[in-house]
């Protein structure tokens, strides 16, 4: 099967270096997965992610004229969906936000935000009152 840029194929890790991993693609072809293309996370030690003889799916990024093949593991697999933390504000309090206009949503957001800011300011003000000594007592 001929290798084509953009295709996802399966290969076997045939060597690991500090800058990447060599992948045996069969038919005497070997490509390199640079360390930056191993995972979506920062990879400090490639051996934490790959080991010799491991089967991996790789995407062919490029095939140079001199025969060098660039590969990517992270582009061969779909990224994991990011988890989104629920917002503290419950925007579905009493009405359907889908039917609200943008201006109404913005107005509601600003009102809630202002209420929270006032609440935080009053808490900070209470915390800064001091220990009951007046300034005059220190001057005398």
Automatic annotation (TrEMBL):
SUPFAM superfamilies: Nucleic acid-binding proteins (SSF50249). Residues 75-140 are annotated as: Disordered. Residues 122-140 have a biased composition (Basic residues). Keywords: Ribonucleoprotein, Ribosomal protein. One of its GO terms (cellular component) is ribosome. The keyword Cell membrane does not apply. The keyword Amino-acid biosynthesis does not apply. GO terms for molecular function: mRNA binding; structural constituent of ribosome. Residues 85-118 have a biased composition (Basic and acidic residues). GO terms for biological process: translation. It comes from the Bacteria. Residues 6-74 form the S1 motif domain. Pfam families: S1 (PF00575). Belongs to the bacterial ribosomal protein bS1 family. This is RNA-binding protein S1.
